[in-house]
Amino acid sequence: MKIKNIILYSLLSSSVLLAASCRKFVEVDQYDKRTLKTTDDFRYLLNNKGNFESSYILPLITSDNIAAEVPTTASLAWGENYQRAYIWNDYFYVDNQQDVAWNNLYKQIYIANEILDGVMESQNGTTSQKLAVAAEARVHRAFAYFSLANQYAQVYDPTKAESQPGLPLLLKADLFENLSRVSLARIYEQMITDLSLATENLPNYPTFNYHPSKIAAYALLSRVYLTMRNFEEAGRYADLALALDPTVYNLEDYVSGSYPRLIDDKEVLLSKLSSGFIRGPINPELIALYKADDLRLKLFIGTDVNTYKGSVYIKPLFNNPYYYNSYVGLNSPEIILNRAEVYARQNNVAKVVELLNLLRKKRFAASKYIALSPTDISGDLLQSVVDERRREFVGTDLRWYDMRRLTLDGNYFKPVSRTLNGQTYTLTASSPRLIYPINQEVLTLNPEIGQNPR
């Protein structure tokens, strides 16, 4: 079996994982040299934000939230890697370039596996403390696998998932794990197992939002089941999360004041950050979905007349002018909109109206807010929720994931065309370009993984 070269990263950021490996691309200690002994050692590994918070970036540029044509100044600012992702190219990285997203996510899986392998036998901790650490590791691992599956694997189809190729499934911190892909169904089964076990030993809310909690696990379960098209379970877990009364800010309170920093943001249930920044330009069709008085348009979207020459996403800058990375991860509005989508698919007009208004009344000044009525959305309940998701999740990864799963819903996926350097490219519902290519650097070391169709 091949040495596990799948993870192209260094674990030097963790103070408890010491010494460099003698093998290139496998910079981890041998088991008998590790210093993870006490329960606190494993807790410190979880508390290191650098291990789990930085994630990926390409879903922000491959989705139709970005304009169909970008000026040369914007494409130059992006660089060639992002330009290739923008047109869903055969490959995104060249030569010895690393796929930061793949590396980050498998690094998180590896660290989660290290924790799960050892924490229950660790010293100087109570059983409840050990179970809590293990539960957090399971949530991080599930989030990483969901992100990988929705970038590097096919769109989950419940009628085909047992035969759809998934990903290498690594559940042990072992240098000799089998790297052949398991089925997509198996990947999702593992997410559900991890999250279901985790909920038993997590607090309802975290002390800091980069720690997993019960409400975050419920939110992620709702997202996973929504992607699996198991709408009953998606709704059930959204209800469990809603029962914990998640915070949704009234944006009117922040028109003339400071919006909370990420670490203080109560809407954020599990903090994850993009591994770089893509500001825009935002698709004018998306901007047109906002009402003029929508405070999301006022507070989180700005204009750049120089580099991007259009509307840009500025929420990360709202409270820190030097901070560009977008918030990905889990948040309170997603729970509401997941539940609304399930009701829309059940043709429950009254509940869809109730939930959309629950969110929207926090997105307008009280003097400008006009509640939706059933007649406003009865023409197409699902489209009304999809549109609200686009307004709420601009600047995040969720639109790309929604685009992928909506390919199984007929006309709810619209072909996306975009032009770069005078050439036009189109993404259709049946296109293999809805799946990211595996970096050649990974495949050279691990050919058994196999490239995705292009």
Automatic annotation (TrEMBL):
The keyword Signal applies. Residues 334-453 form the RagB/SusD domain. It is found in: Cell outer membrane. Belongs to the SusD family. This is RagB/SusD family nutrient uptake outer membrane protein. Residues 75-226 form the SusD-like N-terminal domain. It holds the Pfam family SusD_RagB. SUPFAM superfamilies: TPR-like.
